[in-house]
């Protein structure tokens, strides 16, 4: 079946969550949002492109930082309301310079930092 | 630092997305939503508990199906507006009886089904 970005279920802002996963290691790196056109651009260019809610603009991941996400595989969930992009990540995915945004664990009621920022 | 569920950023419905990842294989299994009390219950019981938007009720994953999610590690992202739960999944995570909800890939413009339902 041919894929139509309009067939996805977007929220009332026209957005769908997209989980970015390292295609090599399986590590979950970040979650951000796409609109229908960001989905189209991601598939057409192979460069993962989100919609920035704060800037209200397309966000080609890594365009300014160089920390690009090359699309390896694009997946849709059963309800068509969440995406999983399997990627090759250059450098850190997180704006704090850590490899993943999920660097804080909650263990025995305490927050534990699992990763330090990467050096350039 | 002591963890306070109220310190997370919830959306205007009081919800935060939670990504469930197989702690053994790294496979991303599903994404669902929690409210503050679901976060508390998940941490207290070790059984991953979501908030069902359709039923407007707590949803202890697997309570009726037996396909429970045992919490292994609970992670918070840099913006505190997304969660990652690393889990031991019994049986399929998806209501279609597939291991993961992300069983559809988009490749060369076509939808490709990657997994078949598990047998009981």
UniProtKB/TrEMBL annotation, chains A, B:
Which leading EC class covers this enzyme?
hydrolase
Q: Which GO terms describe its molecular function?
A: magnesium ion binding; phosphoribosyl-AMP cyclohydrolase activity; phosphoribosyl-ATP diphosphatase activity; zinc ion binding
Q: Which residues are in the Phosphoribosyl-AMP cyclohydrolase domain?
A: 30-103
Pathway noted in the entry: Amino-acid biosynthesis; L-histidine biosynthesis; L-histidine from 5-phospho-alpha-D-ribose 1-diphosphate: step 2/9; Amino-acid biosynthesis; L-histidine biosynthesis; L-histidine from 5-phospho-alpha-D-ribose 1-diphosphate: step 3/9
Which terms under GO biological process does the entry name?
Answer: L-histidine biosynthetic process
| Residues the record lists as binding Zn(2+) | 78, 94, 101
Keywords of this entry: Amino-acid biosynthesis, Cytoplasm, Histidine biosynthesis, Hydrolase, Magnesium, Metal-binding, Zinc
Query: Where in the cell is the protein located?
Result: Cytoplasm
Spell out the GO cellular component terms annotated for this protein, sorted alphabetically and separated by semicolons.
Answer: cytoplasm
Which cofactor is recorded for it?
Zn(2+); Mg(2+)
Could you say which EC number(s) this protein's record lists? Answer: 3.5.4.19
Cofactor binding, per record: Binds 1 zinc ion per subunit. Binds 1 Mg(2+) ion per subunit.
- Broad class of where this protein is predominantly found: cytoplasm
Pfam families for this protein? PRA-CH (PF01502)
Q: Identify the residues that bind Mg(2+).
A: 77, 79, 81
What's the superkingdom here? Answer: Bacteria
Catalysed reactions, semicolon-separated: 1-(5-phospho-beta-D-ribosyl)-5'-AMP + H2O = 1-(5-phospho-beta-D-ribosyl)-5-[(5-phospho-beta-D-ribosylamino)methylideneamino]imidazole-4-carboxamide; 1-(5-phospho-beta-D-ribosyl)-ATP + H2O = 1-(5-phospho-beta-D-ribosyl)-5'-AMP + diphosphate + H(+)
Summarizing the function annotation, the protein's role is:
Catalyzes the hydrolysis of the adenine ring of phosphoribosyl-AMP.
Q: How does it assemble?
A: Homodimer.
Q: Family per UniProt?
A: In the N-terminal section; belongs to the PRA-CH family.
Name this protein carries in UniProt: Phosphoribosyl-AMP cyclohydrolase
Q: What organism is listed for this UniProt entry?
A: Roseovarius gahaiensis
């Amino acid at each position: 079946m041919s894929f139509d970005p309009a067939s996805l279920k977007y929220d009332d802002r026209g957005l769908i969550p997209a989980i970015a996963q390292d295609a090599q290691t399986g590590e979950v790196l970040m979650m951000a949002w796409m609109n229908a056109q960001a989905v189209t651009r991601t598939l057409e260019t192979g460069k993962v492109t989100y919609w920035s809610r704060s800037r209200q603009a397309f966000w080609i991941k890594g365009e300014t930082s160089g920390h690009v996400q090359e699309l390896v595989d694009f997946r849709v969930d059963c309800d068509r309301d969440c995406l999983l992009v399997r990627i090759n990540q250059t450098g850190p995915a997180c704006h704090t310079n850590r490899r993943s945004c999920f660097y804080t664990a909650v263990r025995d009621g305490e927050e534990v930092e699992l990763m330090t920022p990467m050096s350039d």
